[in-house]
Every structure is written in structure tokens, then in C-alpha cells.
Amino acid sequence: MSDQQASKLSPYLGFNRQQWAGLRNSVPLSLTEQDLEQLRGINESLDLDEVSDIYLPLSRLLNLNFKSKQRRHEVQQEFLATNQGSVPYVIGIAGSVAVGKSTTARILQALLDRWPEHPRVELVTTDGFLHPTKVLQERELMHRKGFPESYDMQKLIQFIRAIKAGEPRVSCPIYSHLIYDILPDTEKVIEQPDILILEGLNVLQTGLDYPSDPHKVFVSDFLDFSIYVDAEEERLKTWYIERFLKFRQGAFRDPNSYFHHFSSLNEPEAIQTAGQIWDDINYPNLRDNIQPTRERADLILTKGQNHFIEQIKLRKS
């Protein structure tokens, strides 16, 4: 089969970096280098060129989709002769541990927040819907954290359902990476955003990924647009180890950190430990539960060296 034939059969349109950058259509760059300092991840060399070439065209696409969804909602309201207000537009961002989902989510939030059509853009991570450590310990699931069974899917579905229903105030738990647990008696309140960005390992997973869960509704049912951030497996492992080494020199040194004991490792020991964690936990989760959801996404961003996007795939409409 020729490349041209394969392209016709693919559900996606493919773009290289230069082709995608051309779709920016003169959208102004609203972020500064100082803004990027607050947005980039601990192990990423994100620059303004990456924002201009990749994220500005993406923010334009999302803005166009948002406005189209608004128009469809207005048509329905006119037909029903009602005025129930707008429905939040929900963007899902999925991908592996260490691929940079959180940075992608923060950049998109910052860019979309600057469009006049949607001044209220909220960001929520599905980490907050992990079962508390006490529950995971009781169920002997601490070594399966991040796997489908470690999430309270009923609570996550209730949250996203309430958001899409337009409820005025919806609360969600907050997860602390420092203590590696849900913060007690602490919640984030979401008040009718124009756009909600939901980021996490599991946003594209369905009932096939949760065979023991009787629910028939999935997070993906509520998404208006979904993004999968991708990279080669070996590259992901390298990024995970590099990130672990930086945490060892930083966050792990905090006595309150759940991983404080790792701060005493020397560099060879830390590399070996991080590699073992990847091989035993993160890679099996990627292989069995995360990577299989990639083709469910509306957009796939594939990263190359230094976390820079090299290829973009957009689902054909």
C-alpha cells in the first residue's frame, strides 16, 4: 500500500511542524518568556517558538470549535424557546506519565483565557479523583496507582456530568504530589467556566478499561475535544528518569515529601530506582491502559527530542 493510499484510509490528517505552524493565521502571541517560566514543566525546554508554531494554531482550532458549539447551542435554545445559558466546552488531555500533559494543559489554559470569547477557562486534573492513600492501602493497590482501578470513577463521572449540566458550583478534590495523596478537607470549586480542561492519564478510557465497574457512562462521553500527547516509549522512560533526578535534588528533599527517602540516593542508585519504577509500574500502565486510548483522541501531538512537537494528527471531521 502506498503512503498516499494509507493516508486516505487513515482517520487522521497528518501535519509536520511547518505545515501546522502555517495554520496560525496571524493569531497574536499573547505569552511572554516570563509567562513560560511559570508554565513549563520541570524537565521541559519549552520556548516561544513552540508556542507560536504548535499551541497558537491549536488555540485557534479550539476557539473555532468553541464558537461553533455555541452557535449550535443557540439554535437549540431558539428551537426550544428557552434560555438556559451556555454549556461549558470540555477539552480532555491524555498521555503517558512524563510526556508533559500538564504543561500542555497549562499552556492551552493561558492561551484560551486570552481569547475574548471565553474569559473563564478552568483546569482540573484527574489526579484529584484517585482513591485516597488509605483506601489504596486497604485494597493493596499502592503499586497500581494511576491504573484504572486506582480511580474513583463514579466521583469523576459525577463531577464532569455536573459541569456539563451547567451547575453553578461544582467542587472536586485536590491532589498533592508532595504528600502523594488527596488533600484532606480541601476542594477546588468550579463556577460555570466557558471552557474546562480536564487533564489525566485516564480521560479517554472507557468501560473496557474498567471491567469491574458497572457504570455505563465514561468521561469521554462529555468531552467536546480530546488531545493525546504522545512520544516514543524509550524517550518517555528517559524523560521519567531525568525528571526523577531533578525531583531528587528538589522536591524530594522536603521532609514532608512522600518520596523524601529517595533524596539520599546517589545518582547511579537514583537512575536504577527510577528505571525500575518505570519498568514495573509506568510502562505496563502505558502499554495496557493509556496507549490503547490514543486513537480515540481528536488530536495527537507527537513529541520528539527535548519535548518539542514534531508531528500533529487531526481527526477528519
Say how many strands there are. Answer: 9
Low-confidence stretches: none
Overall geometric form: globular
Whole-number radius of gyration? 20 Å
How would you sum up the major sheet? 7 strands, mixed
Q: Share of helix among residues?
A: 25-40%
Count the DSSP helices: 9
Estimate the strand proportion. 15-25%
Order of helices and strands: HEHHHEHEHHEEEEHHEE
Query: Between the first and last Cα atoms, what is the distance in angstroms?
Result: 24 Å
Largest sheet, spatial ordering of strands = 1-9-8-7-2-6-3
Provide keyphrases for this structure.
alpha/beta, 18% strand
Provide an overview of this structure.
- With 317 residues, this protein is of the alpha/beta class.
- The protein has helices at 3-9, 17-21, 33-39, 48-80, 101-112, 133-138, 153-164, 233-249, 267-290; strands spanning 12-16, 89-95, 121-125, 170-176, 181-190, 195-199, 225-230, 299-303, 309-315.
- Strands 1-9-8-7-2-6-3 form a seven-stranded mixed β-sheet. Strands 4-5 form a two-stranded antiparallel ribbon.
- The longest helix is centred in the first third of the chain and has 33 residues, at 48-80.
- The chain starts with a helix and ends with a strand.
- The mean pLDDT is 92.
